[in-house]
Design goal:
globular
Length: about 120
């Protein structure tokens, strides 16, 4: 399957091909909902992204506000006309960097990365 991801994903480092492909598939299937949720700062895709980075439940509204305040940039990356695996990965990486830049959310993300690395 790895070769399939690598061949389906251009412009992405091979070790990120799977993440790019999965990010693209997730967004492709939920793009309209993602746009709505980021614009509102809440909703199922905000909750799903918060759970991926293992944010504490009490931080989900803060996370939603963070996405909403950066919606122009995030929604530009999630434009249906240009969305491909590389842009989907760039979007997810940008979400991660926004979380890393926030003092409260940063600790939860770092703990999630350690937990994912151990599995």
């Amino acid at each position: 399957m790895r070769n399939t991801w690598n061949s389906a994903v251009s412009g992405v480092a091979p070790h990120l091909a799977r993440a790019a492909w999965l990010s693209h598939e997730y967004l492709r299937l939920r793009l309209h909902q993602f746009h709505e949720d980021v614009a509102l700062g809440m909703g199922p895709t905000v909750e799903a992204l918060a759970s991926v980075v293992m944010l504490r439940r009490e931080y989900v509204p803060l996370f939603g506000s963070l996405l909403k305040s950066n919606r122009d940039e995030l929604l530009a990356l999630a434009d249906a006309r240009t969305l491909d695996p590389a842009r989907a990965l760039a979007l997810m990486q940008r979400v991660g960097s926004l979380v890393r830049e926030h003092p409260l959310l940063k600790n939860d993300l770092e703990a999630a990365l350690v937990a994912h690395a151990m599995h």
